[in-house]
Each structure stands twice: as C-alpha cells, then as structure tokens.
Amino acid sequence: MNTFTCIAFGIIVFIVVVKILNVVTKGRCTSKAKLNGKTVLITGASGGIGKETAIDMAARGARVILGCRNLKFAEDTKQEIISKTGNTNIVIYQIDFESLTSVRKFSKLIHENESRLDVLINNAGAMGLGNKITEDGLHIMMQVNHFGPFLLTNLLLDLLKKSAPSRIVTVSSLGYILTLLDPDNLNKPRRFDELNYFNSKLCNILMSNELARKLEGTNVTSNCLHPGVIYTPLFKHLPWYKRIPVSLIFPFLFKNTKEGAQTTIHCAVCEKVYGVSGKYFQDCKEYWTLPIASNRELDVKVWNKSMEFVKLQENEIHY
Ligand SMILES: NC(=O)c1ccc[n+]([C@@H]2O[C@H](COP(=O)([O-])OP(=O)(O)OC[C@H]3O[C@@H](n4cnc5c(N)ncnc54)[C@H](OP(=O)(O)O)[C@@H]3O)[C@@H](O)[C@H]2O)c1
Ligand SMILES: *[C@@H]1O[C@H](CO)[C@@H](O)[C@H](O)[C@H]1NC(C)=O
Ligand SMILES: *[C@@H]1O[C@H](CO)[C@@H](O)[C@H](O)[C@H]1NC(C)=O
Ligand SMILES: *[C@@H]1O[C@H](CO)[C@@H](O)[C@H](O)[C@H]1NC(C)=O
Q1: Proximal ligand: closest to the CA of 63
Q2: Pocket test for ligand 1, best of 41, 49, 146 (most atoms within 8 A of CB)
C-alpha cells in the first residue's frame, strides 16, 4: 500500500468507527409520562432540537410556551406542533437573549399571564457570533448562551418553586471539555471563536450545578446535558470554510434532530430523573464530567460574577 491508500483507509475506518459508536450509544427517552395540566417553557423552540422537544412536550399534553426571538419562525413552529399533535395549548412569547431588557420583559409577561411553570428548558443557544459587545456591555456569545439564560432562570424561580415538583433542564455541550475559561474575566474576547462558545457552554454546567445546591429541599431540580452532535441551523453563522465541511460530514455521521432531542426530553419528563439534581446527562444517561465541571469553588465564583453582570436585583433573587 502506498501512503495515499493508507491515509484513505485510515479515514474510512475512522468514519465507520465513529458512525458505529454513535449508533450504539444513541439513547432514547422511553418514558410514557403524560404532562396534562403542566406547563413547559422551551427557549429557542422554533428550530433544531428545541422544536423537536416542543413537539414531544405537546404530544404529552402539556401547555407549551415557545420562547422565541423570531415570531414568524415561532408561528410556523406553533402550527406544525398543532398539526402533528392536535394539542392547541401552545403559546408564543418573544425573547432575545442579546438584550437583558428583553429577558426581563419576557419574564414579566410570563408572570402576568401564566399561573404555573413545571419545566423550564434552557435550550436556546448560538455559535459563531464573534467578539461583539451587547447593549448590556457583555460579550455576545457569553450573554446569549449563559448570562441571558442565567438571568431568565433566576427570574422564573419563584414560579418554578410555586409549581414544585418542577424541573430545570439546561442544554450544554460536550464541547465544554475544550474550554479555557478565565473566571476573573468571563467576557474576555477570544481569537478562536469556538472557544467563546465552549466557554459559555461550560458556564451552563456550572450554573446548573450551583442552582441544584441553591434549590436543595425545594423540590425544584436542575440538570444539564449534552444533546449529541446534530446538524442544525446552529452552524449558520460559521464562515463558509467551516460551514461547508460541517454540512457534508455532520448529517451523515451524527444524530438527527429527533435523536438530538431525546436527552432533553429524558431530563424533562422521565420518572427515573424524578428528584435527581445537579447531574450532567448524555444519551439519556447520567454521565461523569471533567473536574472543571464539578468544582464547587468555580461554580460559586461564576455564579457570583454572573449575578453582578446581569445586575440581579434583591427582588429578583428567589432562592
Ligand atoms: N447541534 C449540535 O450539534 C449541538 C451540540 C451540543 C449542544 N448544542 C446545543 O443545543 C441547543 C440547541 O441548538 P440547536 O442545535 O437546535 O441549534 P438551532 O437550531 O440554531 O437552535 C437554537 C435556537 O436558539 C435560538 N437563539 C439563538 N440566539 C438567540 C437569541 N439571541 N435569543 C433568543 N433565541 C436565540 C435560535 O433562534 P433563531 O432561529 O432566532 O436564531 C434557535 O431557535 C443550543 O444550546 C446548542 O448550544 C447543540
Ligand atoms: C396573556 O393572556 C391573555 C388572556 O389569556 C391573552 O389574551 C394574551 O394573548 C396573553 N399574552 C401572551 C403574550 O400570550
Ligand atoms: C417536597 O416534596 C415532598 C414529597 O412530595 C413533600 O413532602 C415536601 O413537603 C415538599 N417540599 C417542598 C418545600 O415543597
Ligand atoms: C458569593 O456570594 C455569596 C453571597 O453574596 C457570598 O456569601 C460568597 O462569599 C461569595 N463567594 C465568592 C467566592 O465570591
């Protein structure tokens, strides 16, 4: 064999192994739990795995709140959910995590209009937004993926506690293992843009863990998860030289959106997860994490800094 054949053979073996691993580890949520009379809020529900999650929650009978930025996409999603599940109890509220004012406005409307909240699913997220600074003076990737959801979760805790037993589910990413988080400068710009994304996804785990501690004894649980790798519009902001390989490789190698939604659904409804809190899930199973994602000191530090950055007021603290 010459070198070229060797390399080509190596690549093919690698692809086959990845594909097989992906197929055999793929988890499915097998729970038949019904959600009649319950309210589930999903952020970023108008596309990708958020939409699949919303369809599943609606099929179980829940009142489903779609927290979306683009109202046109949200309306299309609502119609699709109704036609697929027959559940018409679907409502849309607008939220844009690029603005903390929008997050507070969203929470105010929810409090005015909704009497309960049984499951909060922090699903919205973005990649490839660069090193911009938001109107709130924060790094855009950190705000959309962490500070915004952090503020929202805090603002909704009163409603979640009132509706206990209730669950908070935060969609993180295995990409957290590639982080270089500087807890003393959470808004530090990074030349390698994926690092901004991975850092923010680590913060999702740290928030989820600290939240679980702060909510001990309340019957409100907090868990986070890696959904798998799924070809979704998440990659739409990447430059073409990254987007094209992703669009060629990901759909073939990894999960589809329905498969990608399973771990979120598992954490949101499965009886086996009842009372479980402060854990990290993958493929519908509890998973271990690297020390950086199970370090109480770091959890508290990032929590306290996040409180400062979103200017959490005394009357917005519900734990
Ligand atoms: N796909 C993967 O391989 C993968 C892997 C690990 C983790 N994840 C995580 O899974 C979650 C869902 O991602 P996905 O793959 O389903 O991607 P997606 O299809 O792009 O869904 C992300 C959702 O978040 C919304 N969103 C983005 N920026 C927002 C903002 N500023 N304000 C409000 N909503 C905003 C998007 O709304 P618009 O349509 O308005 O942009 C979209 O509905 C994300 O948290 C992501 O980090 C995905
Ligand atoms: C709030 O509830 C009222 C009455 O049920 C309804 O008319 C209104 O559209 C709701 N607002 C939102 C944003 O869903
Ligand atoms: C939590 O749930 C248990 C079991 O249902 C109940 O006994 C307890 O009072 C609840 N605690 C709170 C704070 O709601
Ligand atoms: C975090 O904030 C809490 C409450 O204000 C405080 O008691 C604690 O000492 C702070 N910890 C760190 C590491 O900043």
Answers
A1: 2
A2: 49
pLDDT tens, the chain, 319 aa long: 688 888 888 888 887 887 788 777 788 999 999 999 999 999 999 999 999 999 999 999 999 999 999 999 999 999 999 999 999 999 999 999 999 999 999 999 999 999 999 999 999 999 999 999 999 999 999 999 999 999 999 999 999 999 999 999 999 999 999 999 999 999 999 999 999 999 999 999 999 999 999 999 999 999 999 999 999 999 999 999 999 999 998 988 889 999 999 999 999 999 999 999 999 999 999 999 999 999 999 999 999 999 999 999 999 999 9
Strand order in the sheet with 90-94: 90-94, 63-68, 39-43, 119-122, 166-171, 220-226, 280-282, 285-287
Q: Which residue has a Cα nearest atom 5 of ligand 4?
A: 304
Domains located in the chain, CATH noted: 32-312 (3.40.50.720)
User: Does residue 295 have its Cβ closer than 6 Å to ligand 3?
Assistant: no
* Whole-angstrom distance, CA of residue 88 vs CA of residue 64: 9
